[in-house]
Design brief:
With 244 residues, this protein is mainly alpha-helical. It has 2 domains: 103 residues, no CATH class; 106 residues, no CATH class. 52% of the residues lie in helices and 5% in strands. The protein has 8 helices and 2 strands; from the N terminus they run H-H-H-H-E-E-H-H-H-H. A two-stranded antiparallel sheet has the order 1-2. Strand 1 and strand 2 form a beta hairpin. It is elongated, with a radius of gyration of 25 Å.
């Protein structure tokens, strides 16, 4: 904080420094509450819904999407992959008349919430599982294309992904090339190494706080000696806070 300067090279005003410190303490508190809520959800999923914990063990699938897919789709007993795709409305609807045969796109007659979640999961899968077989299949067919071709192919990817996850839950094998999340201890140790490399004092973080992402990490550790609700900004008047 002492090394920070304004754009014109001046030292930060004391009031601005104090405001930045208060904002960083609020940030640490929010991060801690988010991580506590996630830990509670994971614990509840492991004890009451093992399928949710099994899905969230895959990288790119969080507890929210895993809960939606288990409560909306995978609680049912499907006999084959066509039933899975048809329940989500992701199965094709062919049309034929005489010698003419066409595909009219997906049916869109299934569970709309599950279908929206499956398509969202398809985009997340491309980001977090780039080396998986499904992601390679998508990029081989789309290439550098943009726009409509990507929106069309993401629906096909979502259908294949949901079928692969159904097989994973019922039969056991992971989808090809899928990466799983590290356990809690490995994530905590890796986060501490990251914070030490960035020059932060790990021991001064709030207790029980897991590793935040890079964009969440403030430039200095939180101070546990000051209250979180210390006020916002500099007080221009004793009874009137600064409303900037």
């Amino acid at each position: 904080m002492e090394t920070l300067r304004t754009a014109d090279g001046r030292d930060l005003p004391p009031c601005l420094k104090n405001e930045i410190k208060r904002e960083c303490r609020r940030l640490w508190q929010v991060i801690e509450m988010i991580m506590e809520g996630g830990a509670e959800q994971r614990q509840a999923a492991e004890t009451t819904a093992p399928g949710i914990a099994q899905l969230s063990h895959l990288r790119g699938i969080g507890l929210t999407i895993a809960s939606v897919m288990m409560n909306e789709v995978f609680f049912r007993d499907f006999q084959n992959r066509r039933e899975v795709a048809g329940y989500l409305g992701l199965a094709s609807s062919p049309w034929s008349s005489g010698a003419v045969s066409r595909d009219q796109g997906i049916q869109r007659s299934g569970n709309p919430r599950a279908r929206r979640t499956a398509i969202e999961l398809g985009w997340l899968w491309l980001r977090h599982q780039p080396d998986s077989g499904l992601a390679r299949w998508f990029h081989e067919r789309v290439g550098a294309g943009k726009g409509r071709i990507r929106r069309t192919m993401i629906v096909a990817l979502a259908r294949k992904l949901i079928i692969a996850l159904w097989r994973y839950l019922t039969q056991g094998p992971l989808p090809e090339g899928t990466m799983t999340r590290p356990d809690e201890r490995v994530r905590r140790e890796g986060g501490q190494r990251h914070l030490r490399r960035s020059g932060m004092d790990v021991d001064r973080r709030p207790p029980g706080l897991l590793t935040p992402s890079k964009r969440w990490v403030p430039s200095f550790p939180a101070s546990p000696n000051l209250p979180v609700n210390a006020g916002y900004g500099c007080r221009l008047h004793p009874s009137r806070p600064d409303m900037r």
